[in-house]
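pipeline stage [seq->struct] | target=MoaD/ThiS family protein | organism=Aetokthonos hydrillicola Thurmond2011 | residues=91
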Amino acid sequence: MAVKVLVPTALQQFTDNKATLQCSGNNITELLDSLEKSCPGIKARLCDEKGEPRRFLNLYVNSEDIRFLDGTKTPLKDGDEVSIVPAVAGG
C-alpha cells in the first residue's frame, strides 16, 4: 500500500530534500513509524515523547485534519495523501 506524504521544507533535511515521499501504513501511527525507518530522526520532530503529533504540527489525510477524524488511529488506504503542515502564528 502506498501513501503519498507531503513534507514541509523545514523537515526536508531528513528526507534528502524531497518534498514528497511514498510510505506505507494502515493508520497514521504506522505511517509515522514507516517514515522514521526511511528518514531516521524525523519522527522526533513530528511527535512528542508519547508518540503523539506535536501541538505545533497539523497532519491532514486528503485535506481532512486528523484531529477531527480518529487522530493517530485515522485509517489510511492506498492512494491517500498525508500532508504535514507546521502551524503558523503571527500578529
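stage status: PASS
auto-comment: The mean pLDDT is 94. The radius of gyration is 12 Å.
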